Amino acid sequence: MTDLDQFRSETRAWLAENCPEEMRDGDITAEKQCWGGRLWEFQSEAQKQWFDRALEKGYTVPTWPIEYGGAGLSADQAKILDEERQAINARKPLSNFGISMLGPALLAYGTHEQKLQHLTGIARGEIRWCQGYSEPGAGSDLASLKSKCEDKGDHWLINGQKIWTSNADISDWIFCLVRTDFDAPKHRGITFILIDMASEGISVKPIVLISGHSPFCETFFDDVKVPKSYGPGNDSVVGEVNRGWDVAKNLLVHERGMLGTMSPLRGTKGPESLGKFAADHIGLDQGDRLADPALRQRIAQAELDNWAYNLTVERMTDEANAGNGLGAKSSMLKYVASELTKQGSELRMDIEGTAGATIGADGIEYDSLANTWLYNRAYSILGGTTEVQLNIISKRVLELPSQ
Ligand SMILES: Cc1cc2nc3c(=O)[nH]c(=O)nc-3n(C[C@H](O)[C@H](O)[C@H](O)COP(=O)(O)OP(=O)(O)OC[C@H]3O[C@@H](n4cnc5c(N)ncnc54)[C@H](O)[C@@H]3O)c2cc1C
Question: What is the distance between the alpha carbons of residues 142 and 199, in angstroms, rounded to a whole number?
């Protein structure tokens, strides 16, 4: 038995003993995840128990170093943990932007003291982070951002506005891009800074979407004073002042990588396959095949694309773990995952027909098919639009000439 085989059998046994039955429903809806943070309240005893057991083992952030709250697992071990977790349909014990976005960027660019404060807070589910990148005049062209950050000696003074800040109204801290130099070329005057959302001068206004959800907000900064340092070696700025674009790009690779590794053809709540969904709603013919031949063809094509996509994710993840990083290839995964996700919910809507076209009397039935279909349209915008991903793929992956 190899060390990894041994690890697999120990992990299987640990999951069997520690993951409560109630947490093994494979539910992936945002409402059912554990997000953590100062305002967090567990939805059930089972959810708390699952979180506590995972935390004890370092499994809220399995690959992070033990000193920052992780389990120090190798990439191969983390893959096994993930496979075994998915095999019993267990939810993740904790999910949030701190884990998927800020954490990896801090591991690359943070000081030991910054990691000690912020990574540990994320791993323990104590602090929930939001992302302050986009502004009304800076989305795809993010480097045009204008939120002004002035050096006032012992503190920074910030004035400006962010938009589309997901969950800003329920987050504790924000990782933010601000402009510290208005005269330098636009990529050279940006700084990456960490700010407590409880700071005086920050106000937040939720935006309601067509799906009825209100996952994001406008975030305003009016004379917000941010300390230069939160303690020795623990500055509020990550990396160098005016060089925040490097940190920002590193974080975007992780954001796109995370978005690009979701399960595109999943059901509204979990892994229910398209084929089963169609069979349940449309029925089978005498040859035990889906009764509608045209739909059968479309589902088969989507399943094939999904299969190819999953194999590509696996290959690219192995390559990334072998030290090559995902880099611009994260844009390929993000692009395909977004298109397949939209296609999957489009197909489910077609399968259900008019019965699927309900969003509840108040329009806010979060996990209805129609809501999911509406929300999934956002995937080709969030984390960088589809057109922008195609630009990146053509320039950085395929190395095509600009004109
Ligand atoms: C659900 C959701 C959650 C989000 N959460 C966050 C968050 O937490 N924090 C945050 O900071 N932001 C967040 N965003 C914002 C997101 O990053 C931006 O919406 C996105 O980057 C696009 O910017 P924009 O909306 O300003 O569109 P624009 O940049 O104005 O783009 C408009 C259109 O022009 C196209 N376009 C623009 N430039 C080019 C080009 N060079 N070549 C070809 N086509 C181009 C785009 O593809 C798009 O179709 C979120 C967005 C969504 C939908």
Answer: 24
